[in-house]
Amino acid sequence: MSGTVEQLQAQIKDQGAAIRQLKAAQAPADDVQAALALMQDLKERLRIETGAPPADAKKLVLKTPKGTRDYTAKEMSVRSDIFQAITSVFERHGAVTIDTPVFELKEILMGKYGEDSKLIYDLADQGGELCSLRYDLTVPFARYVAMNGVSNIKRYHIAKVYRRDQPAMTKGRMREFFQCDYDIAGAYDVMVADAECVRVAVEVLSKVDVGAFVIKINHRMLLDAVFETAGVEEEKVRAISSAVDKLDKQPWADVRHEMTEEKGLDGAVADRIGEFVQLRGGAELLDQLQSMPDLMRSEKAQQGVREMQAFFKYAEIYGVLDRISFDMSLARGLDYYTGIIYEAVLVEEEEKSRTKSPAKSRNPSDESQARVGSIAAGGRYDKLVGMFAESRGKKAADVPCVGISFGVERIYSVVMSRMREQQIKANRTQIYVIAAHSGLLEERMRIATELWDAGIAAEFMYKAKAKLQAQFKVCDDERIPWAVIIGQSEVDDGVVLVKNMAVRNESQGNGVRVKRVDMVAELKQRLGQ
Q1: Which of 124, 82, 121 lies closest to 102 in space, CA to CA?
Q2: What is the dihedral of CA 57, 62, 66, 72, to 10 degrees?
Q3: Which helix (H) or strand (E) holds 6?
Q4: How many whole angstroms separate alpha carbon 299 and alpha carbon 157?
């Protein structure tokens, strides 16, 4: 390469002299331009050969796009533990997993998310199909069920979704993030599957240890009955529902102002809504609703109350009543919900929201992360699958569905805030093979191979002359609990030294001598395998 560079530099020098001679001789302009073009070509070849940036190149800014981020090895270790904990609960309840494309046909997604349809990422036309990045995992699941003629399935799906939202990174609100969905599709007895979804939520949030939480529940039929009784026009129901959904973060006065001033609702109608949506409690709230004759004239209200009575009965059997709050302000802005709806929030942040007025900019219907304290949400959606089936010209019955989605980024933020970085183990290595003296690289490789063959996670330093303190430092930095230490005398005697690196105990000395042939069995016993 250096020879090529020297040749090009010499040619550039000669070409410069040739150009000067042409100009001195007042040569034709075309000849001068041709010589200049050759000079430019030589310089460009030299730039490529040396790897230099173009003269007009802008300085590359190394950053991730807004609303996205990288994760370190230790952060990914924590996230992996969270995913495993969630998956274990899903599978304990008999769920199977599926996968769907990260982008869908745009027409599949549009019209399913109420006001939040504007947050969908559209992709450029790549050959006749208009596509968008998936906004959640629920609509793709409903499409999957309709397209494949599935009549019943209990499925979970852990994958990334995308929203063109205003990010708040410290609160776990991002433009690219993971959702963990658990859904039950099929026609079953009222509220049996719905109550199990709440049981799953309690198990998941308890296992990942997010702290004290409460699951707020409501029923879309009760909410629709409230709007009907209050006199809300049909075309305004979803817009008013979206406003009501902000009551967990805004005082009633602000929500009422949005209803009347921004969405054109009559003030008297808004006040009638206010009488209902500020109610919250437990199963006793059903008795209070049944004592309201105007409301109970609605068939929707009657059905909603019956279904909620069944839900509370099953929730008691599942042992989750103490985690539930019946909250009439919970609305869930997504258009596809038809029955029970729920949302899990952290108790501490729920209490904060009651005592101070937050900023007014928020996304009211985010399935997993819009509310600062929202860590999971979901509900029943009985018509979504049938909507897709009808669009294909099929006369198929609806496949009722109910599910819940966990906001992993929010859960991760809470878990990480309680951990010290030095306490996090990024890898799964259990044994570090150490040479007490310089050398013995091949012997360390042989021992590591034996351990790998036995299914034990092991590492060693990739240096022929590894320093002892440097190897010990790796054990400390990477939180590797055990070491197998060898020196030339140990190799000659057919033994190894096994040392517990997690315990600072002088009585260990250099380690416990173990016969090389017994090494694997000894380590498995110490590791509890």
Answers
A1: 121
A2: 160
A3: helix 2-24
A4: 35
45-49, 144-148, 157-161, 419-423: range with highest mean pLDDT: 157-161
Strand 324-327 and strand 280-281: the pairing is antiparallel
> Could you read off the pLDDT of 499-516 as tens digits, one per residue?
998 887 666 667 889 999
Cβ atoms within 10 Å, residue 6: 10
C-alpha of 434 from chain center: 39
Residue 346 · residue 232 · CB < 8 Å: no
Give which of 241, 249, 245, 252 is closest to 274, Cα–Cα.
252
CA dihedral 107, 113, 116, 117 (to 10 degrees): 10
Cβ proximity of 394 and 206 under 8 Å: no
> What Rg value do the Cα atoms of the chain yield, rounded?
33
Residues 6 or more apart whose CB falls under 8 angstroms from that of 94 comprise: 154
Give the closest residue to 512 by CA, choosing from 529, 491, 495: 495
Predicted pLDDT at 128: 80
Decide: 146 and 396 in contact? Cβ < 8 Å: yes
Query: Helices 267-277 & 220-230, crossing angle to 10 degrees?
Result: 150
The two tokens of residue 392 are 């294909």
| Average pLDDT over the chain, rounded to an integer | 87
